[in-house]
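User: Last request for today: this protein with LLP, please.
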Amino acid sequence: MDWFRYENGELFCEAVPVRKIVSRYGSPVYVYSRSSLRDRYQQLERAFREVRPLICYSVKANSNLAVLDTLKGLGSGFDVVSAGEIYRVQRIGADPRKVVYASVGKREEDMEMALNWGILMFNVESSAELELLSRVASRLRKRARVAIRVNPDVDARTHDYITTAKKENKFGVDLYTAEQIFSNPKRYPWVEIVGIHVHIGSQIVDTSPYATALDKVEKFIKGLGPKARSLKYLNIGGGLGIRYKDEDPDSAEVFASRIIPYVKRLGLKMVMEPGRFIAGNSGIFVCRVIYVKRTPAKNFVVVDGAMNDLIRPSLYKAYHRIWPVVERTSETMTCDVVGPVCESGDFFAKDRQIPQVDSRDLLAVFSAGAYGFVMASNYNSRPRPAEVMVEGDRFSLVRRRETFKDLIRGERLFR
Ligand code: LLP
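Assistant: Here's the final one, the structure of the complex with LLP:
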């Protein structure tokens, strides 16, 4: 089911006209569909039901408290990457025994926070980290459960910036080092190695790289022999792709049918960390046309949203579908959709054909629910947009628009 759809030429999120949301809360604004979040989570839950995985929603994709709270309500756990994300999931009352923590750069104080809270496990990315974690755990007299994040050296065939399991990437430990770790557990006395973690990248639309990675992981675990006795979990990470344009991503069922056999053969409890799959198409970004600027070379549709609000097109040349919130005409125009920020990289689309628009028209930028607001900044001293959540015919502000005061919060003069 598509939770964002046109009815008589007007865009709705669930049962709410998007225009109504903008007239209440202004533009630019992110709009999330709660039913879509639920639907996507449950698609995974259903597809993998045979192995009853622990689904740890990847907080980095969209960390708004209302989004986290919605997922917690469905029984989701959380994948966090920083003390700040731990703070967020604590604030919504998440169960620490459903929280996994990955990051190549965990500091002592981050480890302390996670240990004191009693998270399920750390996804450890180097032997240096393992040593430090063991020391911190010993100081706190709390055993640290860890999964070793292995880097199986596979190409997820996605954007270079979001591929993570090639040997030149900074993530995880190579299989040789991982073997060393399993062979010398006494070096890390306060650490209990309970899992293997593998995350190969993001926006992966076909399952074969997962199979390649899991083949290697399975061989590795089997090769460990009795040293693998302490293993309880296999964490396959996130990365399941979505449709932005015309991709035809493998469904949750197809993913499940490829992955479940490994989980069963290894006899481990499966953990997964989906972010984009749940949030990506559960949100849109809405902005208003300020001017239509026609030059001899191009038409520019200048909108009130910009790269600081949604950076994916600028950063990855990512494609996001853009369409008027209210369709007024079937005549089209070819244009660049750009923001007001003083950079040529500030665009949402280039040479895009859309229906003719004019000043004050609203445009929806689709598939903006993941890696949208979370990557927003205040560049050019632009207050960050509001976020609104919809469910059925109800909608509510889940983060107010920033004010000028927010822009200078914490700043001091030096005279
Ligand atoms: N687990 C780990 C260890 C990760 O590093 C990530 C994402 C995930 C799970 C969730 O991946 P997902 O299911 O959302 O693909 N900003 C980029 C995406 C960066 C992804 C970083 N890691 C973008 O806008 O495409």
